[in-house]
Design a protein that fits this description.
By secondary structure, the protein is of the alpha/beta class. It has a single domain, classed as 3-Layer(aba) Sandwich (Rossmann fold). It has an eight-stranded mixed β-sheet, sandwiched between helices. Helix 4 runs parallel beside helix 5, helix 5 packs parallel to helix 6 and helix 5 packs across helix 12. The N and C termini lie far apart (38 Å).
Length: 318
């Protein structure tokens, strides 16, 4: 059996039903109050992991916790405040989590936005870049000691097929996107930054001799609230009530969570693996390994982005 055939066989075999009990493991899921974040947290809780819902809106997070407990009543699910658009909130979250759980097995960097207009975070970063990438860069640094203390820690970056967009190239002279702002390009850039970070993080973990893995996944054409700020046509296409018409290229949050769960739980996964739906245009289907853009894999870009992130956030590690 060839290398590609072996991977194809494992891709076809992997399902959540084959995942072992996760008792004793701690998982932090950012943006876990809705969408794929909620479904990721639900699946982990159902397998007895301690799940930390790191969310901006405490009320929605508490409602999400109650929702999870209806399907997994004995689960240990805890809410911790986190706004990845605020470095102060990120630092506070990292402190609180570290104090309570000195060993963390999973960090799933899922929280994200898709801003409709050009705007800035409280720290002065372009909203998508600051929320989707820089906040998670800082959070990962704040929790890294706890993650590397685990026997098989994993950091999973939730990315997007938009990281391959031609206009998603990183402009290091204009990371605030002050010139020619475009909402789709801004989102794509934030996801390219996240993917570049994922690959560079694995390089640095490997160089340090750490068993902790950095991986990524994307949910495909998933119907979630992240599209609520987009134009009415996109909102309509991805509306759950139109599933009968759009189900051939969109999927539910539960299905969209599967590639992320595979990145987090597949015992055959390796550092810098990237998972996504294996069906039509990578928008629907079972989770399989998918391609990372060449730009995200470029070592020079990885080093440059890492240095820029350290400078912007003041968080340095590895």
């Amino acid at each position: 059996m060839s290398f590609d055939q072996a991977h194809t066989a494992r891709d076809q075999e992997w399902t959540m039903a084959r995942v072992a009990d996760q008792s004793g493991r701690v998982a932090v899921v950012t943006g876990a109050n809705s969408g794929i974040g909620l479904e990721i947290a639900r699946a982990l809780a159902a397998r007895n992991a301690t799940v930390v819902l790191a969310c901006r809106n405490r009320e929605r997070a508490s409602a999400a916790r109650d929702d999870i407990l209806t399907t997994a009543p004995t689960a240990n699910v805890v809410v911790v405040p986190l706004d990845t658009s605020s470095l102060e909130s990120v630092a506070a979250c990292a402190r609180q989590v570290r104090e309570r759980w000195p060993v963390i097995d999973l960090l799933i960097n899922n929280a994200g936005v898709m801003a409709r207009e050009h705007s800035y975070t409280v720290d002065g970063f372009e909203t998508d870049f600051g929320t989707n990438f820089l906040g998670h860069f800082a959070l990962t640094g704040g929790l890294l000691d706890a993650l590397t203390a685990a026997p098989a820690g994993r950091i999973v970056t939730v990315s997007s097929i938009t990281h391959r967009r031609r206009d998603a190239a990183l402009d290091f002279d204009d990371l605030a996107f002050t010139r020619g702002f475009d909402q789709a390009a801004a989102y794509g850039r934030s996801k390219l930054a996240s993917m570049t970070f994922m690959v560079e993080l694995q390089r640095r973990l490997s160089a340090a001799g750490s068993p902790t893995l950095s991986l990524a996944a994307h949910p495909g054409g998933v119907r979630t609230r992240i599209l609520q700020q987009q134009n009415p046509l996109i909102q309509l296409v991805y509306h759950p009530r139109l599933t009968a018409l759009t189900g051939w290229f969109t999927q539910s949050a539960t299905d969209g969570a599967q590639p992320v769960l595979r990145a987090a739980l597949d015992t055959d996964a390796r550092g810098a693996d990237y998972f996504g739906p294996g069906g039509r245009w990578e928008l629907i289907g079972k989770p399989v390994r998918v391609a990372i853009s060449r730009r995200a894999q470029d070592p020079d870009t990885g080093v440059r982005l890492w240095r820029a992130a350290e400078e912007l956030t003041g968080v340095r590690y590895l």
